Amino acid sequence: MKRFLYVAGLPILLFFGWFVLSNGSENFYAPPLRDILRAFVDTWTPQRLNDDVLPSLLRLLSGYVLAAALGIAVGVAIGLNRRLRATVEPVLEFFRAIPPPVLVPVIMLFAGIGNGMKVIVIVFGCVWPILLNTVEGVRAVDSVQLDTAKAYGVRGFARIRTVILRSASPQIAAGLRQALSIAIILMVISEMFAASNGLGFTIVQFQRSFAIPEMWSGIILLGLLGFALSLLFRLAESWALRWYHGLRDAQRKS
Amino acid sequence: SEDGGGDSVDQVKVGVIPIVDVAPIYLGQQKGFFTNRKINLTMESGQGGAAIVPGVVSGQFQFGFSNFTSLLLAQTKNVPIKAVSAGVSSVGEQGKDFGGVVVNANSPIKTAADLAGKKISVNTLKNIGDTTVRESVRKAGGDPSKINFVEMPFPNAPAALAGGQVEASWLVEPQLSQAKAAGARLVASNFVDAAPNLSVAAYFTSAKLEGEDADLVKRFTEAMNESLTYADAHPDEVRAILGTYTKIDEKTRAAMILPKWPTEINEASVQTLADLGAKDGIFDGATPDLSKLLP
Amino acid sequence: MLEVQGLRKVYSTGGREVEALRDLTFTIDNGDLVCLVGPSGCGKTTLLRCIAGLLTQTSGTVKLDGHEVSGPPPGLAMVFQEYGRSLFPWMTVRDNVSLPLKQKRVPRQRRDELVDQALEAVGLAGTESAHPWQLSGGMQQRVAIARAVAYEPSTLLMDEPFAAVDAQTRADLEDLVRALWQRLKVTVLFITHDIDEAVYLGRRVIMLSSSPTVVQDEITVDLPAERDQLHTRADPRFTELRTHVYEQIQAAKRGRPASIG
Amino acid sequence: MLEVQGLRKVYSTGGREVEALRDLTFTIDNGDLVCLVGPSGCGKTTLLRCIAGLLTQTSGTVKLDGHEVSGPPPGLAMVFQEYGRSLFPWMTVRDNVSLPLKQKRVPRQRRDELVDQALEAVGLAGTESAHPWQLSGGMQQRVAIARAVAYEPSTLLMDEPFAAVDAQTRADLEDLVRALWQRLKVTVLFITHDIDEAVYLGRRVIMLSSSPTVVQDEITVDLPAERDQLHTRADPRFTELRTHVYEQIQAAKRGRPASIG
Amino acid sequence: MRSKALLGLSGLAGLLLVIELLPRLGLVDDSYLPPTSEIAAALADELGTTAFWQAVGDTLTGWAIGLLIAVVAGVLIGIVVGAVPVLRAATASTIEFLRPIPSVALIPLAVLLYGTGLGSVLLLVVYASFWQVLVQVLYGVADVDPIADETARSFRFSTWARIRNVLWPTALPYVFTGIRLAASVALVLAVTAELVIGAPGLGKLIAVAQTSGAVPDMYALIAVTGLLGVAINLAARVFERRSLSWHQSVRGEVPA
Ligand SMILES: Nc1ncnc2c1ncn2[C@@H]1O[C@H](COP(=O)(O)OP(=O)(O)OP(=O)(O)O)[C@@H](O)[C@H]1O
Ligand SMILES: Nc1ncnc2c1ncn2[C@@H]1O[C@H](COP(=O)(O)OP(=O)(O)OP(=O)(O)O)[C@@H](O)[C@H]1O
Ligand SMILES: [Mg+2]
Ligand SMILES: [Mg+2]
């Protein structure tokens, strides 16, 4: 009960506030929440979810998984190797600063306009928090732990797997968490180009055809989607990092 | 604007897309057609209606530029806007229009009818591009329901076409000239197929401003009409002014086809656009009410 | 054979220069058990790290069996002074102890056997599935010891390994180390600040001076090889030796060699 | 007065339930110096954390001067067993020591004086500007001690505070604690696993049993108040007391009270 | 330090070389991805115009103000929410709900409120980069070593002192990562906002170059955006080295 209040309390309050404040709204672009909710029910039919949300989700997840693999792998390499870091960091920073919308055309040159392009756009956008956090996490591995591994001949891949990744995992988790919502954002951006279905495409389409309550309902759906995914993420994280949370909470709570 | 005919100059912001179509307003600004009428213009450029319409509705911009299908769409949703002057029109001649569908030189697509069942890029789905291209196919005897449209901004379309990612592209100037120069072949003039002398776009304002400051709207319309007429009569000056607000290189500027800028909105052609849109279902079953939109 | 020759180590981090070791020279035969004592901060840990190849010396050489040490040599086990930080918090006690064995490709069954034995020996049977941070300080230290013991190393470096355990457990662990040493003929270098422990455990005791650090003195512990907590410590020779070491350490702290008494 | 009554603490993290303390009852008068000994893992640290109000007990009460402890009481200083992690790596030694004083709003000049004195007393003069991770283990531990000493607490809790220092330094620090105690009339609760140290330092020694933990025994150290390393330790009464404690600890490890000898 | 700069330059040089070679070898059509030399020539032309520098100034203004707001708000809110468990539990779901809403979806709202002015850019920039900082701070606050925190508590540090002396230094490495993430997200959003809404700045120039088919100009401007990113990161790194000299990640860099 208390948990439920924590999770739902503030959102309910905010929605209620929105509902009341927007009730008499005359503004075309900020319609009453009542209308938005009605549009939500009408718009997001199972058919629509299947046609537009499902493909988006699939692209989103494949992009996210790819970004996670790439970000962690490259991040570990860069974090461990000072020279490599010095060499590639400026190039990475260069690409990181380029807005995905202007990069999409370049990606299209190489990857076409299919799902591949959209997945690459998602990867391109959400790999950064994972990469950066992995690099920092790897750099911050406790020196005594590293020495222990070295002294006992734990080297190569085993050292990375059993020591470095585990030790950096709290920070990597921070990156993965960031990347999740960025992936959703990038999903929308990628569907602004050469798309003919998808949640992002639909929202943009609503926006262009002045179906404003429908557009807001799409934004709410995005929020719900993000919330659901982050819930899943949190479950996975608390499982993978149970040692860490145990360690941090051990003295604090008990 | 408060004192109507006084000495004060109205500061007016116009939301435009920085493309060929809006050359007259830049030209008119340069020629002083607006300052003559106590209007001090500022151009705000946005990428399409998504950015411009909210700006006009909320009063951030006094006027905006948009194509008619978008305006009709807005009208069906009761967006409080009103067209105030013509914007740009099709040249009306097959093969000589400022927009059209192109394919690669070696493409098996020879006529508009062949476009049926093909993958065609348009800048925006469910808008003026796909409805008029469908009409081209329909008129040529093809099945328009089979066309597979994909959305792609004009600047990126030539690369996608050349790379074989789409089989045909609907382009407007300057991309049309650039693509043709690179070897692409024109297979349809969709604006021409849709209606004779199609009115493509218009300048519009919010219903609120129209009600509150009819005088300003009137002066703007007059200045606009003068600009349109002047631009239509002085293509060289149009080509020159393009160099100031776009980066189209000189060669392309000289080669490209300029649209027509009549001062009258061709109501019949707008009705045709409305009918085409309704036929393709882009209005969600609603019927646009032209009388509420047109001046 | 472990040869340390002219070893010097200067730390220079953040504008601060510390000469931790000035000039150390000594050798340890294979299968010897040497205790190292010296004032706090004199450079014992630094020395151990250099020997383990974890730290690069400023000058001088460390050779193991004739080869210069550049990285941790195979068959080396080390118990770190920072026992808490040297355990991996994401692993259970069992995994912590068995990880090095896995690296050594000890077959699974044998590994489990070794881990169980080692944990039993340090008195931690029953905590296999706990994480290190669920254990008390002394228990953590014993996990680190168990890890080194289970590894069956050929060289064992221990840095104040019994600092956090109670007297009784300490005595048991001392006997454990001697038993291991005798059974496996492992070379042991053992840092301690407990003089009795140094004399009780070692075949030799090396005393370091305070900074700038050199070898202050060295004695061979000529007590019988079979030692036990009650009798050995009661031996008059034991008392003699410990007094000698004590005096040297005090002299070291004052910064000059005591007249050998 | 510190009253501990029926204290019980059960850890339950990650599915593992450990009864660290079963039922502890004892009192410590203000200005007393009590040493606490017990087998490794018996719950000494847990007890100290409960007294400091850092950990909530499962049942029982801890009262300081009649008030139930719910958070750290004012005027309390604690030296943690994990000395390394209790120092802030981002601060210099000086800042680490003076930060609690700043919190106490000790004026700047007095603060500097106290810090200098404390560092001098633990033998760390000259390392003020170093960071903790540039120091040896024993030096880090002494910084933690200096921090507690400079604070001039009214209650001082120390958890194996001399575990990482050499014998000579340890003796000096023991005398430092006794001097502080006598000078400031501070209440000291001191955990150690060194029985000699417990008897030498304390006015009372409380012995804990091994898990499940209760108070195994308690003695009053009836040695003269003026103690020194040489004579006190040579006192026959000292030997008697230490033997008693030793036997109780051994009995505790076996899990039953020894017949009091 | 010198050799590090050299390595970094060689990395960038490699990138330039690849872009030069891709079109020259005919792997891509040079009218869509021109070689480095052509981009450089276009860039040189741009550098000579005042409009360009004006645009860089506009973009950087939007970026800096937006980033500042986002960082300050992110850090303050992050610490308060992170340090008070009740707040953290109560806001978690709302944060997760708001975070994935793309800034681009807020464009109509921004235009509605602020037109094409700086306000629009700021709204988008702050919205996007705020979350980056916030999430990093939340994770950083959770990373406090329990023993260090207990030490502070046992000495009865005030809440503020605990935040300043324990929480903040622990979270600092996370905050730096957050700032570096936010800095580039802010740049991305500043440029995107200009691109789509048409607020003055580099993005607007890019949009104009794009619609005009001036491909080398477009790439030149994109490159400028990227280089701004590199410069910003460089500054962040220097700052980080100074304030994190005690941290494992920085002190580990010094060869032992
Ligand atoms: N990482 C470091 N950076 C700078 N100085 C260091 C570092 N590590 C150790 N030192 C210095 O080197 C000297 C020797 O340190 P070391 O840890 O080897 O001492 P030790 O003999 O092990 O002491 P203890 O018995 O207290 O553990 C000390 O003065 C210490 O300050
Ligand atoms: N955070 C924790 N979670 C679970 N169990 C714990 C935790 N901390 C301590 N314990 C358990 O509680 C018992 C007592 O631990 P405690 O640290 O109090 O012992 P101690 O007397 O201080 O031992 P030592 O002398 O070795 O430091 C141990 O069995 C330990 O495993
Ligand atoms: Mg040491
Ligand atoms: Mg303890």
TrEMBL record, chain A:
GO terms for biological process: transmembrane transport. It is a multi-pass membrane protein. Its main location: membrane. The keyword Protease does not apply. This is ABC-type nitrate/sulfonate/bicarbonate transport system, permease component. GO terms for cellular component: plasma membrane. The chain crosses the membrane at residues 61-81, 102-131, 179-204, 216-236. It comes from Paractinoplanes atraurantiacus. Residues 53-237 form the ABC transmembrane type-1 domain. It holds the Pfam family BPD_transp_1. Keywords: Cell membrane, Membrane, Transmembrane, Transmembrane helix, Transport. It is found in: Cell membrane. The keyword Repeat does not apply. Belongs to the binding-protein-dependent transport system permease family.
TrEMBL record, chains C, D:
Keywords: ATP-binding, Nucleotide-binding, Transport. CDD domains: ABC_NrtD_SsuB_transporters. GO terms for molecular function: ATP binding; ATP hydrolysis activity. It comes from the Bacteria. Residues 2-235 form the ABC transporter domain. Gene3D superfamilies: P-loop containing nucleotide triphosphate hydrolases. Signal peptide: none annotated. This is NitT/TauT family transport system ATP-binding protein. It comes from Paractinoplanes atraurantiacus.
From TrEMBL, chain E:
GO terms for biological process: transmembrane transport. The chain crosses the membrane at residues 63-84, 105-130, 174-197, 218-239. Pfam families: BPD_transp_1. It is found in: Cell membrane. It comes from the Bacteria. Keywords: Cell membrane, Membrane, Transmembrane, Transmembrane helix, Transport. Residues 56-240 form the ABC transmembrane type-1 domain. It is a multi-pass membrane protein. InterPro entries: MetI-like, MetI-like_sf. Its main location: membrane. GO terms for cellular component: plasma membrane. PANTHER family: ABC TRANSPORTER PERMEASE PROTEIN MJ0413-RELATED (PTHR30151:SF0), ALKANE SULFONATE ABC TRANSPORTER-RELATED, MEMBRANE SUBUNIT (PTHR30151). Belongs to the binding-protein-dependent transport system permease family. This is ABC-type nitrate/sulfonate/bicarbonate transport system, permease component. It comes from Paractinoplanes atraurantiacus.
